[in-house]
From TrEMBL:
Keyword annotations from UniProtKB, A to Z: Transferase
Organism: Maribacter ulvicola
Gene3D superfamilies in UniProt: 4'-phosphopantetheinyl transferase domain
Claim: Hydrolase is one of the keywords in the record: no
InterPro entries named in the record: 4-PPantetheinyl_Trfase_dom, 4-PPantetheinyl_Trfase_dom_sf
Top-level lineage group: Bacteria
Pfam families according to UniProt: ACPS
Record-annotated 4'-phosphopantetheinyl transferase domain positions: 105-195
Membrane-crossing segments per the record: none
Official protein name in the record: 4'-phosphopantetheinyl transferase superfamily protein
GO molecular function annotation: holo-[acyl-carrier-protein] synthase activity; magnesium ion binding
Length: 212
């Protein structure tokens, strides 16, 4: 079972990453989907997507949950029926979930790709990156910032939040593996801790919302 990595963030919060290497048939072993998820699964044209979706159910099992413990709201945001917080991500052959009993959480896995250079201006003031040593470092940094903003979006969940104008990720050094971020939207300020890790040309970023 390719459970790739687990991270204990603190006593209440932890995350797990799966590296999808199984066949679709093998991923079905021990998995039962609710009618809602089965219906979604049936509509997935890509095998990669179906396998990612099934692997998430194995990550849930790692925490003692089944698909039936998960409900999706009208925006597609997942919730656990027992009131614990959850966030889900998939990117190519990596998938991840983060679960917390007390904190709002968000997670995002992204493949590091040069393509991000072309869209950077849409989500971050690009000037901040000019001091980095080379293009590879810029791509790494942009991917972390993008993942942070996706993670925050998954927590905050308001349509209309602009990655460029409403979410600010504090500058950071790679070796610290963490930073902070703020969302200022419609006069409300909320603060977040951001942590990140890199593996096999992928970046995983996860966020927790500070208690007020
Ligand atoms: C919803 C969104 C956050 C998903 O992120 P993604 O990188 O495309 O895909 P990921 O694999 O990381 O995440 C998908 C998971 O996010 C979760 N998700 C979907 N909608 C969500 C929402 N509104 N809130 C929280 N989580 C959500 C789901 O669990 C989904 O997986 P599942 O349906 O298989 O369980 C993303 O599509 C989105 O809408 N982002 C905001 C877009 C935006 O404002 N962009 C500005 C660019 S400048």
């Amino acid at each position: 079972m390719p459970l790739y990595k687990t991270i204990t963030v603190n006593e209440e919060t932890s995350l797990a990453i799966w590296k999808v290497q199984e066949t679709e048939e093998n991923l079905w072993l021990g998995v039962t989907l609710t009618p809602y998820c089965q219906n979604r699964f049936n509509g997935m044209k890509s095998e990669l997507h179906r396998k990612a979706f099934l692997s998430i159910r194995h990550l849930l099992a790692n925490y003692g949950y089944t698909d039936a413990d998960l409900i999706y709201d009208e925006n597609g945001k997942p919730h656990l029926k027992d009131g614990n917080f959850i966030s889900i991500t998939h990117s190519h052959n990596f998938t991840g979930i983060i679960i917390s009993s007390t904190e709002h959480v968000g997670i995002d896995i992204e493949m590091q790709r040069d393509k991000i250079l072309r869209i950077a201006h849409k989500f971050t003031p690009f000037e901040e990156y000019r001091t980095l040593a080379n293009t590879a470092a810029v791509v790494r940094k942009l991917t972390i910032v993008w993942g942070a903003k996706e993670s925050l979006y998954k927590i905050y969940g308001h349509r209309g939040v602009s990655f460029l104008h409403h979410i600010n990720v504090q500058d950071f050094k790679f070796d610290t593996n963490n930073t902070t971020a703020q969302i200022i939207f419609q006069g409300n300020l909320s603060n977040y801790k951001i942590r990140f890790l890199e593996f096999e040309q992928f970046t995983c970023v996860y966020a927790t919302r500070d208690k007020e």
